[in-house]
User: Fold Salicylate synthase from Pseudothauera nasutitermitis.
Amino acid sequence: MSFPHVQNRSASLPLGHCLTQWARDHGARVALVDESGERLSYSALQERAERLAGGLYAAGLRSGEYAMMQMPNTFGFFVAFFALLRLGAIPVMAMPNQREQDVDALMALARPAAYFIPDDAGNHDYLALAERMRGRHEGLRLVVVDGAPEDRRDALILGNLQGPACPWPGHGARDTALLLLSGGTTGTPKLIPRTHGDYFYNFSASAELCGFSADMVFLAVLPAAHNFTLASPGVLGTFQCGGTVVTTTSASCDEAMPLIERERVTHVALVPPLAKLWVEGREWEDSDLSSLKLVQVGGARLEAGLARQLLDTLGCPLQQVFGMAEGLLCYTRLDDPLETIIHTQGRPLSPEDEIRLVDEEDREVPEGQTGQLLTRGPYTIRGYFRAPVQNTSSFTEDGFYRSGDLVRRDGNGNLVVEGRIKEQINRCGEKISAAEVEEALSALHGVHAAVAVGVPDALLGERICAFIKPEGQEIDPVAIKAALRERGLSGYKVPDQIETIAEWPLTAARKIDKRRLVTIATQRASGEPASTP
Ligand code: OOB
Assistant:
């Protein structure tokens, strides 16, 4: 098998072979630890994945079929993920906090043959949702639940599924290995096809750049289905080096910090709002964090002030990561000057990553000025999954991805993210399409028209504010939120702030002035008198 763009790395493999190789290389070492302290060696993880792959094969799942995973950070997540890759099925990485509308739309797009869900998940009944999905999506044949539910209905139990060894898939470097979720700017979701070759490069080159090694312990505190946690370098980067991954389903200081102390965690990846909570939490949380060697922060803009506070309070080096599920990863380097680490989002992982900063007419902006970031490179996709129409606007004719981010270069080639043009709200690092929230609102009774904007927020980075023009009567924000949840909108997409508006503020071009709406939202939230638009 050849992976031509992976340089100086002889052991590049299709993803289905990786765990077998890791078990061979690091067999008895601890691969996974969970909150309860249970440990799984590389050999044990590989055996479980192999057994499950056999069980899935016996149940009829085949190489090349899609399998949606909606799992929290538990052993089951990793066993399922590696079993699917081993079998040659293609994992579709949904997030645990997605709800019916998202799951339904993703299933309509990917047409999965299997759906992996957790058993015990607080107040959300995944099994009931899976049943409804089965009724609606003909191709969905298998529901696999991790746990031991009292009433499992037609679902298979992950821990019980086993079978003889299944055939090895014959994947090449350019074949799709998994589908990642795109943050999205449209009302419908998009999926990102990552190949065996590009994803292997993503995590292995990242692991090398970030100095990952066999004696490291990575805390997976953000959802493992996200590209940052999974492969930048994340969990897969850790495994590639023979290190240990500690998984947790809770990100709060009182649970994550004692875990860092107990497991002597060396590396952790955070989004800025969580980093802020951790800084604040240190005022009363006094676990020993001296094992930490690197804190990575990415997914949304990190303010310089918070970067400094992080360095002071956690007492370990910091790395900024500016990445996207579509591919491009930028990192500040471990030996960069402190000012670069605090003030920039680093530079591309690969020397073959191409960056263009352009104006509205796609003309290159002068050096040092802010432009829209277009990128092309060895691990960046050239098109979304089954989205020919979207692809004509998201990619240039010569294959550059239009990231929608506004970026400038400092004098040393580091990128600084200044903003974005895409209509997306970045709430706690989770990307929400304004159009999707607007569509959901417009469908509600009593809503004449709705516009959603991201408003700077001390806690969330950005909160979702919805402006609604009511149809006659007054609107009740509490009822609106409840109605959105009722309709199956994922909780994190439900607006945090709801405001009514009589007339839209307009730009000179007679479009709705969203910037003005952001100002109005801020004024109204702080109780300032709103100036007329
Ligand atoms: C990561 O991936 P996605 O796909 O959830 O989101 C990508 C978008 C970027 O286009 C940008 O708008 C924003 O998230 N973003 C940042 C950022 N990192 C991502 N904006 C400012 N500063 C940063 N450091 O978010 C992602 C994927 C892999 C690694 C890290 C993050």
